[in-house]
Amino acid sequence: MLRWSLRRRGRTVGRMSIIESSPPGERTQVAPRARRRTVTLFGISLAYFMVLLDTTVLSVAEPDLAASLHTSTAGLQWATTGYTVVFAALLPSSGAVADRHGVHRVFRAGVAVFGVGSLMCALAPALGILVGLRAVLGVAAAACVPASMAMITRLYPDAAERTRAVATWAATSGAAMAAGPIAGGALVGLAGWRAVFLVNVPIAALVLVLTAGRAVRCPRGHRRIDWAAQAAGCVALALGTDALIAAGGRSWPHAAGSGAAAVLAGAVFVLAERRSPAPVVNRVLLRAEGVGAGLAVGAAVNFTLSGGLFVLPLLLQQEYRLSPIATGLAFLPLTLPFALNPPITGRIVLRFGPRPPILAGMTLMTAGCLVLFCAVRWDAGYVLPAFGLLLTGLGVSSALPALVTAIMGAAPDGTAGAVGGLLNATRQSGATLGVAAMGATISLGTGSTYAFLLAAVVCAASAAWFARGSATTQARPDDGRQ
After folding, report:
1. DSSP state of 428
2. Where is the signal peptide (predicted)?
3. Among 393, 482, 91, 263, which Cα is nearest to 385's?
4. Residue 295: Cβ within 10 Å count
5. pLDDT digits (tens, 9 = 90+) for 142-165
6. Is the same domain home to 307 and 436?
7. What does the angle CA 362 – CA 367 – CA 371 come to, to the nearest 5 degrees?
8. Which of 65, 178, 345, 429 would be a feasible disulfide site paired with 88, CB 3.0-4.6 Å?
């Protein structure tokens, strides 16, 4: 067999394979185009890393932030949830906003606002200003995440290449979770809590440089947005969070008033959704088999993870007298599985489906929370809490990757993007409620003990719901064949 390996473009004549040379213009363009795509993908992934890093990096800075701004546990809760409340509430509509105003434009605007907002957070002179600026960061984060997925789709039209690109993008979530507490501890140890926000400024600038090309500019769409329903949903989540935080501070009239207002705002949201020609939540998704239980699992995972990341630094630094850097290192049993375990989970999902790793992950999380409950209750030192953190980290890194597969598989045709946005919104809502509810146990004087017992109950309940729903879904095809 005769071969001329000049460049690409082959044709076969009989048993002779001839590889013709590409035109000069193509030879000079292919490699730079591939490099530009790789650079742009790195920029998009770096933006996702920055957004997720901000959900965890502040946890280790809590004691220093409280001392600097003279705030209570309730103030710390709002400094954390001010970001996640807005992030969660806007995620369902942010994809429509990106489509309507241009994906590339919305993404870059979100990154720029995130960078500037982070700089202003670092300069915040008072807690109220910091909470307001954290809400601005939530708006910017909601603009970035759905737009980044659309940009990847535009950048990689080939399905196989797009799958690999999305895997690279998604892998940054594990890296952000793993790096957050350690990076936060190092930054706080070196320069105090303000450094936690300053680190976002050069990252945002780099993202803007890397994503400046024309390759990911998408045409505008005409999707409608129901801003009244969106605002009602945001207000309902914020008031519900306020009610939990006020209850933790034993401010019962405040808690009752906020709780009643949250119920009212929730009712307005439901009414607006029913009448809206462009609802925030696609009702078809909620009626799909298995979606509701899967969303509950996603909320429970982030409830436990974010709530635990809020409670544990206060415990480790105030009761165990650990430095910020030592506190960040103490989280390694929890965060290392986020970076190491997902590939193993992926192989299990390919062989056995998503149900076993989801149930195994939720079982591990329930067990981990119970171990943490016992360790704190009986002051067991660090070894037993480390084991509880390891179980929890293995549970999170087993359940979440499989959950995405399960939710996408249960979604009706043509709704994958919408259900993905709904899953992210539900997870961030769970994170908000986790910080509020688990943090309230500290304010109520029970220490951090019952925080982990509460998380164990939430994980076990969601696992039971998912097990029942997925078992029913698997049984129906067999019943139909008999």
Report:
1. H
2. none
3. 393
4. 24
5. 988 878 877 887 788 777 777 677
6. yes
7. 145
8. 429
- Centroid of chain to Cα 95: 16
Q: How would you class 479 by CB atoms within 10 Å of its CB: exposed for 0-12, middle for 13-18, buried for 19 or more?
A: exposed
Domain containing residue 294: CATH number: 1.20.1250.20
Cα gap 423→172, rounded to integer Å? 18
Q: At what angle do helices 24-56 and 159-191 cross, to 10 degrees?
A: 40
Residue 19: beta bridge partners? 5, 10
Copy the structure tokens of residue 431. Answer: 């994170």
Segment 387-433, tens digit of pLDDT: 999 999 999 989 988 888 788 777 666 555 567 678 888 988 999 99
Stated as kind and residue range, the H or E segment containing 11 is strand 10-13
- Stated as kind and residue range, the H or E segment containing 3 is none
CA–CA separation, 120 and 197 (whole Å): 9
Q: Residues 341, 306: one domain?
A: yes
Q: What is the largest CA-CA distance in the chain?
A: 87
What does the alpha-carbon distance between residue 283 and residue 409 come to, in Å, rounded to a whole number?
17
